Amino acid sequence: MSKPLKSSQAMPLSGGVRVPGDKSISHRALMFGALAVGESRIEGLLEGDDVLRTAAAMRALGAEVERLEDGSWRLWGRGVGGLQEPADVLDLGNSGTGARLMMGLVATHPFTTIFTGDASLRSRPMKRVSEPLSRMGARFFTREGGRLPAAVVGTDNPLPIVYELPVASAQVKSAILLAGLNTPGITTVIEKEATRDHTELMLRNFGATVDVEYLEDGRHAISVTGFPELTGRHVVVPADPSSAAFPAVAALIVPGSEITLRGVGMNPLRTGLYTTLQEMGADICFQDAREEGGEPVADLLIRASRLRGVEVPAERAPSMIDEYPILAVAAAFATGTTRMNGLSELRVKESDRFAAVMRGLVACGVKVEEEGDTMVVHGTGAPPPGGGTVAVNLDHRIAMSFLVLGMASGQPVTVDDAEAIETSFPGFETLMNGLGAKIETV
Ligand SMILES: O=C(O)C1=C[C@@H](OP(=O)(O)O)[C@@H](O)[C@H](O)C1
Ligand SMILES: C=C(OP(=O)(O)O)C(=O)O
Question: What are phi and psi of 200, to 5 degrees?
Answer without folding.
Answer: -60, -50
